[in-house]
């Protein structure tokens, strides 16, 4: 996912759509949500406190994908293009406290499909197993 994102120099997509498209390119599907919603947590992602490559980094109003947690860098779509930045830089620190989220559903299972599968499994068994 990171290598695909690094090949993009410019995009008409905003940060949230860009991240969603990157995930889809590698077979990870989740229902699109703007960064302000992602910041509060959404189905399919669990909040983590030690990010790994490919995790989301989210501020209210911006989202990106962790490139290298040791270097504290992330990739995101900005008005001036797709860039790798340090999330500990003064600019990003002024944006407020970032949160990290890790995709937590099976890869290649769209969130809506996984949710529907769980619902149909529990409703058909009715506790009679």
Written account of the structure:
Helices cover 31% and strands 25% of the residues. Strands 1-6-2-3-4-5 form a 6-stranded antiparallel sheet. Strand 3 (62-68) and strand 4 form a beta hairpin. The protein is built from 5 helices and 6 strands. With 129 residues, the chain is an alpha+beta fold. The relative contact order is 0.19. It has a single domain, classed as endopeptidase domain like (from Nostoc punctiforme) (endopeptidase fold (from Nostoc punctiforme), Alpha-Beta Complex). The protein is globular.
In short:
The chain is α+β, with helices and mostly antiparallel strands. The protein is built from 5 helices and 6 strands; from the N terminus they run αααβββββαβα.
Please list the strands of the largest sheet in the order they lie side by side. 1-6-2-3-4-5
Bin the strand percentage: 15-25%
Q: Report the CATH topology name.
A: endopeptidase fold (from Nostoc punctiforme)
Distance between the termini: 40 Å
Helix content: 25-40%
Principal-axis shape: globular
Give the helix/strand layout:
Elements: H1 2-6, H2 15-25, H3 35-39, E1 45-48, E2 56-59, E3 62-68, E4 73-78, E5 81-86, H4 90-93, E6 99-103, H5 111-125
Antiparallel strand pairs: 1-6, 2-3, 2-6, 3-4, 4-5
């Amino acid at each position: 996912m990171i290598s695909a994102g690094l090949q993009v120099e410019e995009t008409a997509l905003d940060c949230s759509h860009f991240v969603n498209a990157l995930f889809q390119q590698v077979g990870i599907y989740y229902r699109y949500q703007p960064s302000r919603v992602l910041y509060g947590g959404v189905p399919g992602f669990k909040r983590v406190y030690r990010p790994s490559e490919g995790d989301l980094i989210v501020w209210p109003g911006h989202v990106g994908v962790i490139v290298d947690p040791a270097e504290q860098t992330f990739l995101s779509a900005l008005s001036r293009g797709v860039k790798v930045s340090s999330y500990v830089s003064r600019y990003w620190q002024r944006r407020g406290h970032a949160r990290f989220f890790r995709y937590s559903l099976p890869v290649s299972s769209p969130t809506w499909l996984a949710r529907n599968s769980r619902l149909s499994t529990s409703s058909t068994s009715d506790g009679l197993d």
